[in-house]
């Protein structure tokens, strides 16, 4: 019950890592504002009434104001913000459209920036030593062909997090990243063909694709008081994917 009497906002909460994070926070005592464009999957609320569903597009320029207004209307402070919302558009670099570029940046990076700014202002006003956790990707540091807008946003998110951490530290607010590797989510399932899965299993040292709950555990650690002395950090949760330089199926002799 690390989050008893805490209030958390989780974006991208309808599925995947966002849903797993919101569920874990509820189970550990938090009141959770679960934010998504729309909520399609039924919730089994383990929080005994502590779940608040909000339909909100984080790319909407009015989204931060709408969220803050809802928190104030509910007379709630906010202790935790988990920026999990993200989208992926697949196209070769030479064929990426302006519309896809703009939409991916609007959701994955711009939305996270301005939502963090709005929530951090609430934390500062309430003198709350809050936690902001941004969900990046292994592809911030490892190339992902045919996903240039996505990789750009994840690299930008990590750089942004370090600056946030520096500027918010005087207020006792921490900002950190989780960097997942291959994870089974509603976004990734369409591209996880049998061939891709076999290749990932050969490439990942721990040999498996993660369920979203494994990544949510890391998000919740950085959102908790156990991580009170960690800020500006990026925690890899990728089964060793990014650090491994071996050649699958071969060895130097």
From TrEMBL:
Keywords: Oxidoreductase. It comes from Dactylosporangium fulvum. PANTHER family: 3-OXOACYL-[ACYL-CARRIER-PROTEIN] REDUCTASE (PTHR42760:SF133), SHORT-CHAIN DEHYDROGENASES/REDUCTASES FAMILY MEMBER (PTHR42760). InterPro entries: KR_dom, NAD(P)-bd_dom_sf, Sc_DH/Rdtase_CS, SDR_fam. This is SDR family oxidoreductase. CDD domains: SDR_c. Belongs to the short-chain dehydrogenases/reductases (SDR) family. Pfam families: adh_short_C2 (PF13561). Residues 6-181 form the Ketoreductase domain.
């Amino acid at each position: 019950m690390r989050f008893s009497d805490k209030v958390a906002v989780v974006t991208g909460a309808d599925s995947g890592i966002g849903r797993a994070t919101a569920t874990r926070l509820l189970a550990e005592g938090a009141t959770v504002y679960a934010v998504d464009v729309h909520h399609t999957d039924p919730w089994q609320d383990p929080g005994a009434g502590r779940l608040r569903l909000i339909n909100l597009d984080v790319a909407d320029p009015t989204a931060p104001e709408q969220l803050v207004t809802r928190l104030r209307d509910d007379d709630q402070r906010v202790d935790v913000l988990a920026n999990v919302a993200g989208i992926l558009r697949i196209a070769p670099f030479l064929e990426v459209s302006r519309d896809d570029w703009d939409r991916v940046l609007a959701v994955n990076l711009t939305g996270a920036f301005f939502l963090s700014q709005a929530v951090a202002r609430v934390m500062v006003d309430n003198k709350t030593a809050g936690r902001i956790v941004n969900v990046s990707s292994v592809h911030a540091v490892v190339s992902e062909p045919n996903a240039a807008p996505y990789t750009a946003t994840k690299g930008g998110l990590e750089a942004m997090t370090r600056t946030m951490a520096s500027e918010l530290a005087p207020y006792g607010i921490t900002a950190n990243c989780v960097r997942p590797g291959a994870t089974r989510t509603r976004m990734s399932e369409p591209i996880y063909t049998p061939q891709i899965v076999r290749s990932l299993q050969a490439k990942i040292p721990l040999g498996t694709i993660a369920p979203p709950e494994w990544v949510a555990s890391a998000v919740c650690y950085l959102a908790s008081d156990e991580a009170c002395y960690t800020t500006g950090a990026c925690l890899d949760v990728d089964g060793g994917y990014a650090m491994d330089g071996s050649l699958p199926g071969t060895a130097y002799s």
